[in-house]
Design the sequence.
């Protein structure tokens, strides 16, 4: 068998963007330091050389402006892909995204659309401290009109960026800093991973673990460890948080009778609450053998100190511990 | 060796006289201390003793020192991510700064903030900011409070050239102007915002021109000359203290190091960096000026760097012997 081609998550995104730009002149990139610098995390490296400054646009430090520029261009026939250097800074774009991008189509009676993608890296683990480590995806999940995508592997990153750009709605595309250098199989030919298609990444019988972004790989590692103890986790990655394809989650819980939702964002008000509510309100309720639990970020800003930072968000050990408790009925 | 004319001394006669030899010497010593702190910070990072990122202001020491010395006890400081120098110039303790940088419980922010968020609230240093332009509107509130409390304080807020392109900058300058707030807006223009050169980010010659749009005085000075910065900020602070409102001072300087830890610097040439280092270095220039003006001897000038390094050695030792924060306290400190 020929060896499968591997790319990093950052390379997969870049390849996806490069193919989209080569195919469709309407696609362009706009953001801070995405040109010569290649983006703070290197995702757009080399694209300026290939496509020129008209399609790889370096902006001043103006996040409201970046979001607005994407909206205006999208409204008038282009397909912009904006980059917000760290997800934290999207707080400065919120008005444009929440009150403009998300609502334009509805307010105008369906006569306009905003086919834009805004990419941004979230998450902690790099020592960047409280203002560079946010996981704010659920803010967007709460807004009708936006779509929210969160790839957890290089394969999905490339396929989802293609689907996001093809979508006729504003898509918030949440990457993770710690994933950029992770490797995985990525086919060279263009392909799409459809939006709103939840994936079962590991099958198991004892506990359904719904995880997002970096937590998918941590949940898989936890599943490996627990398999040695005879505990089989079923790991599920929604990939698109909104609109959410919840059917595979509900089916899974009907099978396992137990559910744990794992994400990095703060637990209170996080995406996990939505997943728990959907399970509780579904026919899976009758199959539950244990309370549905969440494992998520502590209700604190991300600390600078490395130890504190590590203990602020779920890690493999804490997933193992929580999963074991649920399966063994020790809650 | 840099050429320094007698003209320069003549030009600075008044300010040299008014500051006096002790203060001038301390300013130079403090510039060395900033540089020694940051050179060590970089080294510690390279050795893997620090995790996270840092933004070094090596080459920009004159702006920090000139500005801080123009302020009085009780005044407020807000600054930005490239803020070690401002903080140290404000008189912060190198031990506690280094401990914060190294994430220790004895640091100014108990290891929670790190390099980008050092604050020393007890001395009215309201903190560095990880968000570009994040501190600028806060200065409006500080200015407003000074007015309401009828004190004679002034707020100095320092930010980069990049920050002047955030909406927050524009809102803040206008509010400060219409309410005549006691604020000195100091734009530390080091020629780049990460990879973005000012020539591409602005269609104007000087950022200080923007003051006019809000009805504020604006001035551009040589940010590598501590006395030029001192004079401009002193004047702006005096104006604020007289109740005449805010000013925008732009200090043109240059950052020698990359933007942060992981910057290949493809956006500028080595020659450009070397030119600033060789011909406009703020520490060399100021040392030469003080020697020429007879404030210090060449022998004194030669020992200052070693003295600064010794202070930083102690700060590192203090930090390495300091405890890490305890995970048991992880939930503390979010709410008052
Ligand atoms: C709102 C926001 N956008 C982007 C960033 C990322 N970032 C941090 S510093 C920086 C450049 C800032 O340039 P400037 O204001 O000139 O200050 P300098 O770094 O040159 O001292 C950028 C883009 C940020 N921290 N905050
Ligand atoms: Mg700058």
Sequence:
């Amino acid at each position: 068998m020929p060896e499968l081609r591997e790319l990093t998550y950052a390379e997969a995104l870049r390849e996806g963007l490069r193919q989209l730009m080569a195919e469709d002149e309407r696609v362009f990139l706009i953001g801070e330091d995405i040109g010569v610098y290649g983006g703070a995390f290197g995702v757009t490296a080399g694209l300026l050389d290939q496509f020129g400054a008209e399609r790889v646009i370096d902006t001043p430090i103006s996040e409201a402006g970046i979001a607005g520029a994407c909206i205006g261009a999208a409204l008038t026939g282009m397909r912009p892909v904006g980059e917000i250097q760290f997800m934290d800074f999207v707080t400065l774009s919120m008005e444009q995204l929440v009150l403009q991008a998300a609502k334009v189509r509805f307010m105008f009676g369906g006569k306009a659309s905003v086919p834009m993608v805004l990419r941004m890296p979230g998450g902690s683990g790099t020592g960047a401290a409280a203002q560079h480590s946010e996981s704010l995806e659920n803010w967007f999940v709460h807004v009708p009109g936006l779509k929210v995508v969160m790839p957890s592997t290089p394969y999905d990153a490339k396929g989802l960026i293609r689907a996001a750009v093809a979508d006729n709605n504003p898509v918030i595309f949440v990457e993770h800093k710690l994933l950029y250098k992770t490797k995985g199989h990525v086919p060279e030919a263009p392909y799409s991973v459809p939006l709103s298609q939840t994936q079962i990444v590991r099958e198991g019988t004892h506990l359904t673990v719904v995880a997002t972004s970096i937590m998918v790989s941590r949940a898989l590692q936890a599943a490996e460890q627990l398999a040695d103890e005879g505990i089989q986790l079923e790991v599920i990655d929604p990939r698109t948080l909104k609109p959410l394809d919840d059917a595979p989650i509900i089916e899974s819980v009907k099978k396992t009778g137990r559910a744990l939702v794992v994400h990095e964002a703060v637990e209170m008000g996080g995406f996990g609450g939505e997943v728990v509510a959907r399970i509780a309100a579904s026919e899976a309720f009758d199959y539950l053998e244990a309370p549905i639990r969440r494992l998520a970020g502590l209700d604190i800003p991300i600390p600078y100190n490395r130890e504190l930072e590590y203990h602020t968000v779920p890690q493999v050990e804490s997933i193992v511990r929580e999963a074991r408790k649920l399966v063994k009925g020790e809650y | 060796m840099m050429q320094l004319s007698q003209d320069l001394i003549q030009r600075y006669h008044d300010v040299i006289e008014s500051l006096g030899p002790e203060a001038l010497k301390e300013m130079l010593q403090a510039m060395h201390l900033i540089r020694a702190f940051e050179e060590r910070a970089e080294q510690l990072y390279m050795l893997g003793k620090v995790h996270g990122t840092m933004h070094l202001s090596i080459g920009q020491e004159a702006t920090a020192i000139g500005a801080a010395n123009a302020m009085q006890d009780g005044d407020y400081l807000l600054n930005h991510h490239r803020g070690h120098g401002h903080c140290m110039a404000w008189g912060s303790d190198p031990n506690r700064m280094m401990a914060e940088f190294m994430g220790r419980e004895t640091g100014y922010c108990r290891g929670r903030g790190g390099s980008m968020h050092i604050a020393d609230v007890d001395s009215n240093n309201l903190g560095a900011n990880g968000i570009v332009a994040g501190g600028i509107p806060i200065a409006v509130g500080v200015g407003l409070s000074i007015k309401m409390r009828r004190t004679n304080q002034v707020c100095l807020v320092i930010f980069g050239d990049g920050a002047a392109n955030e909406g927050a900058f524009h809102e803040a300058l206008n509010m400060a102007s219409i309410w005549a707030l006691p604020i000195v807006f100091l734009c530390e223009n080091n020629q780049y915002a990460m990879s973005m050169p000012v020539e591409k980010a602005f269609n104007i010659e000087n950022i200080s021109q923007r003051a006019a749009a809000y009805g504020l005085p604006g001035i551009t000075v040589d940010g590598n000359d501590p006395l030029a910065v001192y004079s401009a900020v002193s004047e702006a602070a005096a104006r604020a203290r007289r109740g005449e409102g805010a000013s925008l001072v732009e200090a043109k300087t240059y950052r020698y190091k990359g933007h942060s830890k992981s910057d290949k610097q493809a956006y500028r040439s080595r020659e450009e960096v070397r030119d600033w280092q060789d011909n406009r270095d703020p520490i060399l220039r100021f040392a030469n000026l003080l020697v020429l003006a007879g404030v210090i001897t060449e022998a004194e000038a030669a020992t200052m760097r070693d003295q600064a390094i010794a202070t930083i050695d102690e700060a590192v030792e203090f930090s390495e012997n300091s405890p890490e924060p305890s995970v048991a306290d992880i939930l503390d400190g979010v709410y008052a």
Remarks:
- The interface with chain B takes residues 32-33, 35-37, 40, 58, 60-65, 88-89, 92, 126-132, 298-301, 303-308, 311-312 of chain A (CB under 8 Å).
- The radius of gyration of chain A is 20 Å.
- Chain A has a mean pLDDT of 98.
- The longest strand of chain A covers residues 259-266.
